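Quick one: structure for this chain?
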Amino acid sequence: MENGSEDSGIDFIAAILSPIGIFFLGCAFALALNELPGNFHSQNLYYVVASGGVILALFTYLINRQRENKQRQKELIQRQNEIYRAIDDKYFSYLQHCMANPELDVYDIPNLKIPYDPGKEADKKKELIAYTMLISLMEIAFIEYLAAPKSIKDNQEWAWHEYIKRFAGRENFKWAWNTWNENESFLFDKRFVAYMEELMK
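Got it. Here's what it folds into:
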């Protein structure tokens, strides 16, 4: 993966620079103690070697800090995704309860806002709930795709796009989406909403 390659490159550079920096600083220390052969006993050489060691040590430190920051950011994103998935799993369980008991007015959208269809009220509500579950899955797939490394996006076609397009053309799907959009659109990621609106034009 792309991020892994970057991290490996940073580790490699840091691994090389660390001993080089230590070598330079060691030479500078030895010069200061007059432990090197006479032709090395130059004050100018001492300053050059000492400066090189300090610069390389600082550069190594900055590389390590960058690596640590990337790792922390990666862990934070991973933790956020875990929380998001845990909440979404609970929400799906709740939707299943709504699906099993359509006569109860406990779904996100009140019964009064679901178009009345004589003799088919329960069916329409179940249809809306089922599409809510499907749209939530589509949103998860969309967000996961946005977070994927560029190398994967460049080399793999996003299969979910074609799958979503099929539903975007269905009248009952559009009805469910518009019903949600009028009442609960704030619950979806804004980027996902814009993506869906573009598909339904």
